[in-house]
Amino acid sequence: MALSRVLHLYAASVAALLLFSWVNFIQSPSDVFGPVALLEPTPSAARDFGGVASDAPLAVLRPRSAADVAQLLTALSSAATPRAAVAARGAGHSLHGQAQARDGIVVETRALPRAVDVVADGGVPYADVGGGAMWAEVLEECLKAGLAPVSWTDYLYLTVGGTLSNGGISGQAFKHGPQISNVLQLEVVTGTCSIFLPPCLALKSYFFVAIVEEESSEDTVRWVRTFYDSFRTFTEDQELLVSMPELVDYVEGFVVLDKQSLHSSSISFPAEVNFSPDFDSGRKVYYCIEFAVHDFQQQGGSPADHVVELVSARLSYLRPHVYSVEVSYFDFLNRVRMEEESLRSRGLWDVPHPWLNVFVPKHGVERFKDLLMDTISPGEFEGPILVYPLLTDRWSGNTSAVVPSTPDGVMYIFSVLRSTDPARCDSACVEVIMEQHRRLADEACRDGGGIGAKQYLARQQSPAHWLEHFGSSWDRFVARKAQFDPMHVLGPGQGIFPKTDSASSI
Asked: What span, in angstroms and rounded, lies between the C-alpha atoms of 400 and 412?
């Protein structure tokens, strides 16, 4: 007991040094919180994929376990004020500085153990996964056991903790819900220094290890694309597809702006696409649906090829423009990797990405599409614009994710995934794009005459915007913050709560 008390007091004294004498502390990275060493910050700790925000921390923690994080937070909570804020950083794919901590501490979760323990004996198969593991690593380990998680993100080189803290969506979400809805259990470290197993929470206010539900996987996927010149027909066919979860396993769609857009979207699709529409007549744009049927889902039923024929026959695409190819399960899930390599080769990966992601209720999709297209010049736009339906009943009301209220239970994700070329778009140009996005989001999300949309993966402009975003869920969210992070230590990059020295100020 005496030794424990000495260690605790030592940790508290180091915390005081950290908080009141940063410069001296950083010059001695061997100083520790008990056994937990804080290191000098790296440039990456002040950067993210969005490339539009940069707030440097004063220290970095590379934890070896959740207990290391808990010990850090214990030291901070034991110290005199002011307290340093703490942010979790995984693969660094936040868009607006959400994983940054100005003058605080960034916890690099990739340093956590990345072991993926797959359990397939008895009951529901699952994987026990560290929050710092990437989904690509999870997939590789699970496939060795003939299993895979049921819900994914399009890009696999993101951390488990990063995507679960935001929800995590891809074309499987209509069927299985977002990734966070497929987690059986979480180990969480909160701002009160506790490690416990909570209901699923979001918005990066926690550090966790996940136990993810899985399903059997086999070798191949039948991957299909169909093309449209009518937005309404495009969305009607998507809704038809998501109404057939017993046959279809994945549904997404995207806007085809011009020839470059068509070429970029075809990089990962390993089949020849003989679609050469007229893009020059009155700014005409086209649309593409892609859906997939997994062979392993058809065990005991029709072969995947036959299912694709049956499903395609019910669609109203521009005939004869349906294209189908068989690929391995891994290659299908890892399809965005080829697009990443293409962007890297063109110098368009490590550039600002002023993205916009919005959940739009079904009744507002055409209006939102029109508002969005008014902000886009096809010849100057680089990147995909994804549009596909999700079902609101697949989202747990117990998370902090906010989805639109829609009586028919259908919403669409609009993801404007732009890469800016520094040779053509400087920082002022990027700010113009972001301002366009802010105005568009305000119009779509505002109370009253708006569409009733909700932003996804966004950092809101002000506390008033956050209050409007959460709506009736705000009081519950504030109560959870008061319970689990009363000093507002965690997640400063979200910009929701100012840091405080007293729980009573919430």
From this structure: 19
Q: Which amino acid is at 249?
A: D
**Do 486 and 456 form a contact (C-beta atoms < 8 A)?**
no
Q: What is the residue type of 117?
A: D
What digits encode the pLDDT tens for the residues 109-151? 999 988 899 988 877 888 999 889 999 999 999 999 888 999 9
Q: What is the pLDDT of residues 279-322, one digit of tens each?
A: 876 678 999 999 999 976 555 556 899 999 999 999 999 999 99
Q: What whole-number distance in Å separates Cα of residue 76 and Cα of residue 83?
A: 6
Judge whether 135 and 152 are in contact, CB under 8 Å.
yes
Told to judge if 154 belongs to the known catalytic residues of this protein, a careful annotator would answer yes
Please pick, among 68, 141, 154, 258, the residue that the annotation labels catalytic: 154
Rounded distance between C-alpha atoms, residue 457 and residue 79, angstroms: 33
The one-letter amino acid at 241: L
Are 489 and 213 in contact by the 8 Å Cβ rule? The answer is no
SS3 296: helix
Q: What CA–CA distance (Å, rounded) separates 113 from 69? A: 13
Q: How many residues does the chain have?
A: 506
Q: How far apart are CA 86 and CA 84, in angstroms?
A: 7
The token duo for 194 is 């506790």
Query: Which of 74, 77, 80, 110 lies closest to 92, judged by CA?
Result: 110
Which amino acid would we find at residue 166?
A: N
Residue 196's pLDDT band (cuts 50, 70, 90)? low
- What the chain holds in terms of domains, given with CATH numbers, is 2-109 (3.30.43.10), 116-216 (3.30.465.10), 220-455 (3.40.462.10)
Select which of 48, 55, 68, 93 is catalytic.
93
Helix (H) or strand (E) holding 239: helix 231-242
Catalytic residue among 48, 252, 290, 339: 252
**What does the pLDDT look like over 69-108, one tens digit per residue?**
988 988 887 776 667 899 999 999 999 999 999 999 999 9
* CA 491 vs CA 129, 270, 465, 498: distances in Å: 22, 41, 17, 10
Question: Six-digit token pair at 479?
Answer: 């109560």
Q: Which of 12-16, 208-212, 273-277, 330-334 has the lowest mean pLDDT?
A: 12-16
| Measured CA angle at 127 (ends 189, 140), to 5 deg | 115
Q: How far apart are the first and last CA of the chain?
A: 35
Query: Among residues 293, 296, 289, 291, which one has the least CA distance to residue 275?
Result: 289
Write out the H or E segment, with its range, that includes residue 22: helix 22-26
Query: What H or E segment, with its residue span, contains residue 173?
Result: helix 173-176
**Does the annotation mark 443 as catalytic?**
no
Question: How far is residue 239's CA from residue 232's CA, in Å, rounded to a whole number?
Answer: 11
Tokens of 323: 């294209």
At residue 85's C-alpha, the angle toward residues 52 and 457, to 5°, is 40
